[in-house]
């Protein structure tokens, strides 16, 4: 039972992530009155890419990518998907926060080795953007942990079953709003699509990847999408006891993200940071203060 | 039992023998001070057990006090006499090679006169006798400052002379007043009669005497001669002036204030004066770029610290002050001696010219470093126990004013550390011109090593001296037993 | 008037001391300063003598049995003054010899101009 | 003669002997230094789990000087000797090209010996004596390189000296108040002392230890000092020496003042505890971002050291058993990974001929793979990536702070992101990116540098995966300081608010890595290409013309750098200037005109007479 979960939940996450990638392209195309590629196109691409030859720039180029994807896979073991959360006993939110570092870091080391100017720019932006949304995000997470008096994500989910979604319970409203405001940045969609920016810096960190590397990078991207959405649903929208309902909730969040993506133009990195550090941070800060004041 | 009179008589006699000896044998001249001071040192050491039991009082010419002149060899006097012989011995060994040019005979003669004067001051029990020995000390130091006969030496010497003469004039007026009031010059006798006179009449003579002695002991604002004289004298003389002369002046001030007058209301004022001297000395030293001037100002600062410690007048602080005094004699002596050869080698007194000396003269630089660390009060050198005793004694008094003054002492220590560390950095870590590595002569190195060993030994095992200093401090503070032992 | 009469020596002595001190303070010719020091010394010596002086007193020598010690001047200050004079002369000699050397080096005796050592 | 006396005798005797041997032969001296430091490690290891006190010296005015050992001293002593040993080994090659090596080795060993004296001290006098010996010997070592190191050393010694003077005032007040300096006896006296006295003690000791530990606002000396010291010593400096401040804080707050008193000392809002916590938080936040601005590798690490000291401060100042364990464990973690980082940077500096400027390095991964691996592991530890020791210790600190004061936790967590940014800058600008033309012939890391790096990297991972190893010892410390015992297993910790199981995490990550690696192997073969053979949209990338890493985080820095002026550094420099200015003014009273001098004498007399007539103090 347990072992199945261990294998099942990363695979499920990968699958959903890749599905989301395909869905995103399809929905975007429909919004723009195009037909768009089939939803399973990214999966097909990954399989194709695995068979292609590619250039490698060195050991760190490989290790970084492997590290990045492995880290993201491990996070999926900690995130409850419905009731499936195989490693929720080995650590809580803090471990997740720290595991979330491995993804960008591995990616950065890997593409840093390639010595491509576009990659360097992309990485710099990726880290800066992460810094940008991490400020309000940490405030939100701390407010949640303080409000529920636990650091375990499964407990947060189960407590929401009694109190209702944390987004709509009194002291956490502000945090919920702040989280919603930074969600696009965490998912890396359009107003904050500064890292990959295909038209500007040739997909940034991804520029040197080809063949299997690109496949891994795509999977990592898919997982990041999955983790971002799943975290939001778990923390703010009450998670779910049932995987299906959980998936539906994720889908709703995903569509929200896509719509935002479709409407907004891209910001510059400094504009993005300035935005993230202004209103969302202020609201999140107010939320934390509110929780501290009312909680005690 | 040996007669303490020899402590004065032997060097005095030998001082005047120097020209005779010189005419007999050129080579022997240089060794006369070494021999005389070695004799004094041995004498002092032999006197220690007896003096610790009971102070020795010698009546010169057989008159019993209060008539006639008496010598009082208590622990304090013996401490100073020993210190003078020890420092004098080390410096005279150093001078064997350092003093080569110029009127060598006169140098050795004056040098011994200076030390005779100093020994006389600390041993005498008679006010006018004190004045006479004081004048011997002063006049020989005026002359020795001008030893090189160069511009700076002559200029500082004449300035020193003018201020010193005014000071000793004031001292003499003070002594005159005291004689007019009490009709006696014996310190113990005066001390006994002091309570019979109204205090306000004693004020003027005391001020005059303190001001007169203060010039020699470099209390602010009477110390303007010191930086000039110490920086232009030959380094061996700077070491003696800094290590002995001003300490003896301070001894005289302390003796007059504590033993003769013994009026405790004024002590706090001296504590303030000490702190002021300390702060001004350290700050002036901080701003110097001339190494010998820096050391000279640092001496002012140290005198301030010692004065502060003595003025608190508890057994602890006075012991601490005396410890600091011993440490100052050794460390400042060491600093001047080592600086002397470094200046000799580089040809300039600017600190920047000493850059990279650590490579050229490693041992001399090491000596300077040890002296500096000790003076700043870093363990395991001799400065730390002294500072520890002073601060603990001062805090033990538990008065807010004194606590604040202690804060200032610690602050000035930081300033002092700053300028010493600056020099040490210049010695070791700045690149100088790539001269050859050449050590100081063997005699100078011997002197420096002896002082270094003393400093480290005192720092590691302060108890060695502490007991003796403790009885010396009660000698200074306990007026009644002084009077009792002199007047029987 | 009797105050003046009784204390004439003291007044004279302190007058001399003050004159000497003032000379040292305001004059900037080295020779004059040395003269000032000398005057001050003289004043001090006079002061010491005055302490021990007794009006109409005799010399402190027991020359004949009828001389009472009460009428003798005090001998101690006189001894002191002898010593002080000797010291004063020594200082004076040293000062003057230094002045000569100083003139050789600086070509002037103006103390305002001899300020190489300061600060 | 107990083990401690033998230890100190061996340590200090070894210093002398090393210097003397250096006069004879340098290889003999090197062998001796290595053997000596190994012997010290062994002696301390043998003292594990011993407690005891012994009076070793009465020569200082009869005040008994005591050595004592307990779990707290043991863990510090062990760290000191361990890092000391590694840095001596590291120096073997590093110092070959320098002059005055005997002096260097002797001073390095002296610093280590005096630090051992500090942690083994059983009374405050012994502590102070060794503290001062450590201070001045450190000063000599910081200034060792000359040039800019002169100013760095000066700044260090002045601040450190001011701190020790404050400490001396504190020690002597304790001595005068209670008549004893033995730490075990002071605690009894302290409990009955007035709270004003306690606060005074905390303040003066806080200044002394705060300066050494580089807690904001006393951090100003550290960046320059760490950057300019010789690299093997930077490792010691950053790793263990500033941790003497941590030791001092623990001693002051929990032993001298006492746990119960400490928690309630001071007012409600401005309690000592909350002030220390806020100082710790500021120490994390500001230096982290200042580190981002740095272009000098060692300076970057130095600022990072300050920031990490803030984490330790948060841990030990918070005052629960979990936070205490976190603080002490983070001290251990920091020792290991920061020494590692300074050593790798030192190796790079050594091989590239002294280049520390991040903008002129790059691409060294091919040339110095060992140093790269070391840096990677060190950086991971610094950030706190799971499976490294930094993760466990930070987890403990967060865990204990999170419910009590979420804002402090936020600062600490946010600081971690800053850490990611500057760590990446460090590793990228040195090892990744382009290899400049002039660094074509850089050789691999020498063996004597590899060895410490391997040991330290291994320790980073070992303590990360099996945190129970250090935590068992730390639990003893925590209990001995009066806290509750922790529930510790070999692989993690269970507390009431959550648990940590590193072995599961390790297994999961290992499995993930293997799976992804296999997945990569399934795919088609890859062709290794040269680093600069890359895609630039058809344009040729001119080599050595551009450096992609200059102004790496420029958008962010432009936003934050106006707020990052080091006010306190400026403030201290202003004080120094003011002192100089004042001193220059004061010495003008010595005008050089002798008439003025005589006037001073006359004025002095007149003043005294005036005072007497006006107030008649007599």
Describe, in plain words, how this protein is organized in 3D:
The complex is a heterotetramer of chains A (about 300), B (about 500), C (about 120) and D (about 625). Chain B has 20 helices and 2 strands. Chain B has about 500 residues and is mainly α. Chain B has a domain of about 210 residues. Chain B has a two-stranded antiparallel sheet with strand order 1-2. Chain C contains 4 helices and no strands. Chain C starts with a helix and ends in a 13-residue tail after the last helix. Chain D is mainly alpha-helical and about 625 residues long. Among the domains of chain D are: about 375 residues, no CATH class; about 30 residues. In chain D, the strands form 2 sheets. Chain D has a 3-stranded antiparallel sheet. Chain D has a two-stranded antiparallel ribbon with strand order 1-2. The longest helix of chain D has about 30 residues. Classes of the chains: A mainly alpha (about 300), B mainly alpha (about 500), C mainly alpha (about 120), D mainly alpha (about 625). Chains in contact: A-D, B-C, B-D, C-D. At the A-D interface, strand 1, helix 3, helix 4, helix 5 and helix 9 of A face helix 16, helix 17, helix 18, strand 5 and helix 21 of D. Strand 1 of chain A pairs parallel with strand 6 of chain D, so a sheet runs across the interface.
Briefly, what is this?
The complex is a heterotetramer of chains A (about 300), B (about 500), C (about 120) and D (about 625). With about 300 residues, chain A is mainly α.
> Looking at the chains present, what oligomeric state does this protein adopt?
heterotetramer
Q: Can you tell me the CATH class of chain C?
A: Mainly Alpha
The chain pair forming the largest interface, with residue counts per chain, is: A-D, 83 and 79 residues
Q: Tell me the count of domains of chain C.
A: 1
As residue ranges, the low-confidence spans of chain B are none
Number of helices of chain C: 4
Q: Please give the alpha-carbon distance between the first and last residues of chain C.
A: 50 Å
Tertiary shape of chain B: globular
Shape of chain C: elongated
Reconstruct the topology from this structure:
The complex is a heterotetramer of chains A (296), B (488), C (119) and D (618).
Chain A: H1 2-31, H2 41-50, E1 54-56, H3 59-78, H4 93-113, H5 117-148, H6 153-163, H7 173-187, H8 198-201, H9 212-236, H10 243-263, H11 269-277, H12 279-295
Helix pairs in contact in A: 1-3, 1-9, 1-10, 2-9, 3-4, 3-9, 4-5, 5-7, 5-11, 5-12, 7-9, 7-12, 9-10
Chain B: H1 5-24, H2 31-53, E1 56-60, E2 69-73, H3 75-98, H4 104-123, H5 127-145, H6 151-182, H7 187-193, H8 199-217, H9 225-232, H10 235-261, H11 267-286, H12 291-311, H13 315-346, H14 357-360, H15 362-376, H16 383-397, H17 400-429, H18 442-460, H19 463-477, H20 479-487
Antiparallel strand pairs in B: 1-2
Helix pairs in contact in B: 1-2, 1-4, 2-3, 3-4, 3-10, 3-13, 3-18, 3-19, 4-5, 4-10, 5-6, 5-10, 6-8, 6-9, 7-10, 7-20, 8-10, 9-10, 9-12, 10-12, 10-13, 11-12, 11-17, 12-13, 12-17, 13-15, 13-16, 13-18, 13-19, 15-17, 15-18
Chain C: H1 2-6, H2 8-26, H3 30-52, H4 75-106
Helix pairs in contact in C: 2-3, 3-4
């Amino acid at each position: 039972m347990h072992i199945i979960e261990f294998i099942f939940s990363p695979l499920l996450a990968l699958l959903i992530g890749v599905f989301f990638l395909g869905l995103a392209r399809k929905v975007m195309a429909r919004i723009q009155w195009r037909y768009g590629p089939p939803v399973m196109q990214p999966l097909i691409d990954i399989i194709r890419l695995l068979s292609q030859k590619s250039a490698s720039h060195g050991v760190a180029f490989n290790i970084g990518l492997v590290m990045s994807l492995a880290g993201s896979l491990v996070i999926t073991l900690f995130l409850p998907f419905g009731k499936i959360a195989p490693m929720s006993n080995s650590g809580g939110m803090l471990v997740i926060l720290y595991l979330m570092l491995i993804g960008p870091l591995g990616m950065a080391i890997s593409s840093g080795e390639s010595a491509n100017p576009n990659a360097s720019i992309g990485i710099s932006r990726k880290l800066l953007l992460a810094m940008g949304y991490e400020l309000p995000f940490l405030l939100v997470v701390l407010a949640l942990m303080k409000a529920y008096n636990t650091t375990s994500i499964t407990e947060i989910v189960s407590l929401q079953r009694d109190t209702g979604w944390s987004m709509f319970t009194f002291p956490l409203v502000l945090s919920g709003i702040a989280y919603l405001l930074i969600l696009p940045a965490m998912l890396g969609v359009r107003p904050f699509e500064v890292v990959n920016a295909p038209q500007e810096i040739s997909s940034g960190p991804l520029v040197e990847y080809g063949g299997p590397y690109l496949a891994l990078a795509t999977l990592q991207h898919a997982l990041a999408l999955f983790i971002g959405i799943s975290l939001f649903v778990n923390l703010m929208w009450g998670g779910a006891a049932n995987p299906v309902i959980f998936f539906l909730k994720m889908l709703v969040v995903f569509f929200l993200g896509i719509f935002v993506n479709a409407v907004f133009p891209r910001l510059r990195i400094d504009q993005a940071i300035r935005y993230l550090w202004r209103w969302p941070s202020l609201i999140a800060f107010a939320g934390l203060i509110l929780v501290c004041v009312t909680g005690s | 039992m040996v007669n303490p009179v020899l402590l004065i008589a032997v060097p005095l006699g030998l001082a005047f023998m120097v020209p005779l000896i010189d005419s007999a044998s050129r080579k022997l001249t240089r060794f006369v001070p070494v021999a005389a001071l070695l004799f004094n040192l041995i004498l002092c050491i032999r006197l220690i057990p007896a003096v610790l039991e009971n102070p020795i009082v010698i009546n010169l010419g057989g008159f019993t006090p209060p008539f006639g002149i008496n010598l009082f060899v208590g622990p304090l006097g013996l401490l100073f006499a020993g210190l003078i012989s020890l420092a004098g011995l080390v410096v005279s060994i150093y001078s064997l090679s350092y003093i080569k040019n110029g009127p060598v005979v006169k140098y050795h003669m004056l040098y011994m006169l200076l030390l005779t004067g100093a020994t006389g001051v600390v041993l005498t029990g008679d006010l006018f006798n004190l004045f006479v020995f004081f004048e011997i000390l002063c006049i020989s130091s005026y002359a020795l400052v001008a030893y090189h006969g160069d511009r700076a030496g002559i200029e500082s010497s004449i300035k020193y002379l003018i201020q010193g003469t005014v000071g000793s004039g004031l001292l003499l007026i003070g002594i005159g007043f005291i004689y007019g009031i009490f009709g006696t010059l014996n310190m113990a006798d005066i001390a006994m009669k002091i309570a019979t006179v109204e205090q306000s009449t004693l004020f003027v003579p005391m001020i005059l005497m303190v001001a007169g002695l203060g010039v020699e002991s470099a209390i602010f604002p009477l110390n303007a001669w010191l930086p000039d004289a110490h920086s232009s004298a030959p380094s061996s003389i700077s070491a003696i002036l800094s290590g002995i002369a001003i300490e003896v002046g301070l001894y005289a001030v302390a003796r007059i204030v504590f033993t003769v007058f013994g009026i405790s209301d004024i002590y706090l004022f001296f504590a303030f004066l000490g702190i002021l001297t300390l702060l001004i000395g350290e700050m002036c030293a901080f701003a110097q770029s001339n190494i010998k001037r820096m050391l000279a100002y640092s001496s002012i600062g140290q005198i301030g610290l010692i004065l502060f410690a003595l003025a608190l007048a508890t057994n602890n602080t006075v012991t601490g002050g005396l410890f600091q005094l011993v440490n100052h004699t050794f460390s400042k002596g060491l600093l001047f001696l080592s600086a002397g050869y470094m200046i000799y080698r580089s040809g300039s007194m600017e600190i920047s010219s000493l850059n990279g000396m650590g490579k050229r003269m490693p041992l001399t630089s090491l000596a300077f470093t040890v002296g500096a660390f000790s003076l700043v009060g870093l363990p395991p050198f001799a400065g730390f126990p002294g500072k520890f005793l002073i601060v603990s004694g001062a805090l033990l008094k538990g008065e807010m004013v004194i606590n604040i003054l202690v804060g200032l002492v610690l602050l000035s220590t930081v300033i002092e550390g700053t300028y010493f560390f600056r020099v040490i950095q210049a010695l070791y870590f700045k690149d100088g011109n790539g001269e050859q590595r050449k050590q100081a002569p063997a005699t100078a190195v011997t002197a420096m090593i002896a002082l270094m060993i003393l400093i480290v030994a005192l720092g590691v095992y302060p108890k060695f001296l502490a007991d003796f200093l403790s009885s010396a401090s009660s000698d200074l503070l306990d007026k009644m037993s002084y009077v009792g032992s002199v007047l029987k | 008037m009797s105050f003046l009469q009784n204390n004439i020596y003291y007044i004279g002595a302190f007058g001399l001391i003050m004159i000497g001190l003032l000379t040292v303070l305001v004059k900037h010719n080295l020779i004059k300063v040395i003269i000032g020091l000398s005057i001050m010394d003289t004043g001090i010596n006079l002061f010491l003598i005055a302490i021990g002086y007794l009006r109409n007193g005799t010399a402190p020598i027991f020359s004949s049995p009828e001389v009472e010690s009460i009428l003798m001047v005090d001998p101690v200050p006189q001894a002191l003054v002898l010593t002080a004079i000797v010291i004063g002369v020594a200082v004076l000699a040293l000062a003057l010899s230094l002045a000569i050397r100083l003139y050789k080096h600086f070509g002037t005796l103006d103390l305002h101009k001899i300020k190489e050592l300061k600060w | 003669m107990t083990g401690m006396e033998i230890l100190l005798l061996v340590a200090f005797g070894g210093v002398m002997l090393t210097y003397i041997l250096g006069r004879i032969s340098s290889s003999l001296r090197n062998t001796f230094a290595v053997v000596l430091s190994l012997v010290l490690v062994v002696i301390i290891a043998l003292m594990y789990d011993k407690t005891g006190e012994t009076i070793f010296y009465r020569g200082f005015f009869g005040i008994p000087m005591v050595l004592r050992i307990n779990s707290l001293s043991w863990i510090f002593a062990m760290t000191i000797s361990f890092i000391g040993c590694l840095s001596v080994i590291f120096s073997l090659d590093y110092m070959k090209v320098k002059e005055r090596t005997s002096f260097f080795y002797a001073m390095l060993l002296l610093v280590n010996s005096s630090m051992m004296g500090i942690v083994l001290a059983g009374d405050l006098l012994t502590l102070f004596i060794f503290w001062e010996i450590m201070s001045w010997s450190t000063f000599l070592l910081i200034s060792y390189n000359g040039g800019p190191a002169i100013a760095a050393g000066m700044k260090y010694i002045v601040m450190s000296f001011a701190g020790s003077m404050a400490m001396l005032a504190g020690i002597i007040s304790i001595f005068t108040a209670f008549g004893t300096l033995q730490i075990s006896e002071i605690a009894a006296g302290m409990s009955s002392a007035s709270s004003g006295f306690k606060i005074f003690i905390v303040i003066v000791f806080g200044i002394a230890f705060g300066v050494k530990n580089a807690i904001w606002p006393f951090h100003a000396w550290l960046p320059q000092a760490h950057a300019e010291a010789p690299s093997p010593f930077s490792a010691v400096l950053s790793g263990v020496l500033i941790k003497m401040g941590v030791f001092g804080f623990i001693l002051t707050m929990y032993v001298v003042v006492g746990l119960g008193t400490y928690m309630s000392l001071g007012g409600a809002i401005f309690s000592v505890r909350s002030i220390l916590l806020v100082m710790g938080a500021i120490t994390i936040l500001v230096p982290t971002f200042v580190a981002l601005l740095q272009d000098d590798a060692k300076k970057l690490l130095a600022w990072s050291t300050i920031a990490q000291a803030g984490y330790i401060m948060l841990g030990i100042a918070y005052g629960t058993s979990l936070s205490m364990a976190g603080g002490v464990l983070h001290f251990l973690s920091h020792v290991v990974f920061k020494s590692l980082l300074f050593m790798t940077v030192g190796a790079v500096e050594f091989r590239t001929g002294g280049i520390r400027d991040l903008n002129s390095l790059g691409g060294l991964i091919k040339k110095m793979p060992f140093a790269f691996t070391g840096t990677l592991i060190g950086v991971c530890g610094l950030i706190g990536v799971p499976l490294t020791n930094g993760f466990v210790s930070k987890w403990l600190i967060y865990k204990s702070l999170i419910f009590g004061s979420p804002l402090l936790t936020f600062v600490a967590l946010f600081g971690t992101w800053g850490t990611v940014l500057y760590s990446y800058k460090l590793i990228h600008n040195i090892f990744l990116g382009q290899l400049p033309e002039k660094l074509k012939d850089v050789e691999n890391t020498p063996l004597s540098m590899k060895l410490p790096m391997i040991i330290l990297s291994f320790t980073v991972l070992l303590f990360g995966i099996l945190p129970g190893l250090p935590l068992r010892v730390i639990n003893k410390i925590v209990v001995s300081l009066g806290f509750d015992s922790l529930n510790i297993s070999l692989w993690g910790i269970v507390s009431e608010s959550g648990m940590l199981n590193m072995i599961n995490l390790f297994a999961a990550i290992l499995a993930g890595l293997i799976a992804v690696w296999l997945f990569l192997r399934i795919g088609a073969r890859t062709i290794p290409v040269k680093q600069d053979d890359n895609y630039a949209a058809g344009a040729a990338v001119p080599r050595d013309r551009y450096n992609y890493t200059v102004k790496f985080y420029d958008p962010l820095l432009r936003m934050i750098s106006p707020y990052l002026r080091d006010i306190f550094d400026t403030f201290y420099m202003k004080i120094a200037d003011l002192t100089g200015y004042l001193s220059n003014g004061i010495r003008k009273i010595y005008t050089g005109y002798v008439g003025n001098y005589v006037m001073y004498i006359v004025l002095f007399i007149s003043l005294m007479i005036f005072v007497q007539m006006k107030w008649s103090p007599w």
